[in-house]
Amino acid sequence: MRRHLIAGLIVATGLATAGIAYADNQPADPSIAITRAAAKGSASPAVAGGKAGVLKGAVHGDLLVRNEDGSTRTVTFDRGKVSSVSASAITIERPDGVAVSKDLTDQTVFNGTPRDQLTTGTPVIVVSEGQAATHVVSKGARAEARQEKRQQRQEQRQEKRQERQEKRQERRAGKGTAPSSMVDDGFETIVS
Questions:
Q1: Helix (H) or strand (E) holding 92
Q2: Count of CB atoms within 10 A of residue 59's CB?
């Protein structure tokens, strides 16, 4: 009985410590990250799917964003792939099959891939106020190049694993037929 009591106390203390550590790492006001990013004129990490990633799997949503002066405004985000882009509009198709078109203005900020380099099929997040896109966020050329390098490294690792596995199989298959050592003393060959 005493052992169970002590074990329970240790577990409870560990859980309490973990809860306090988690709470210490959380912002006092979750809207702060969005407010700061919006005030700087960039998409928030949560919207962009960055480390905050609260909305990482989200396809569409409306967010209430706090400005520096304390007022709020509503922004809409849509995640999808570019269907078409022109000087005045961008159309994306979301994963749920809905096509979304937003107007592009001189104030639209392109984070990642520049406007003139956006192509059909590029994954983006469009942040808008009303019908006007305020931000078009994509991974950009550097991030895509890093992703390609990661894939190449992964393929190389897979090839090396395959080669090692084939060598192991050859060694295992050859053990039963090949002699482990041979000695030739000039008169006769001794195989062991």
A1: strand 89-93
A2: 14
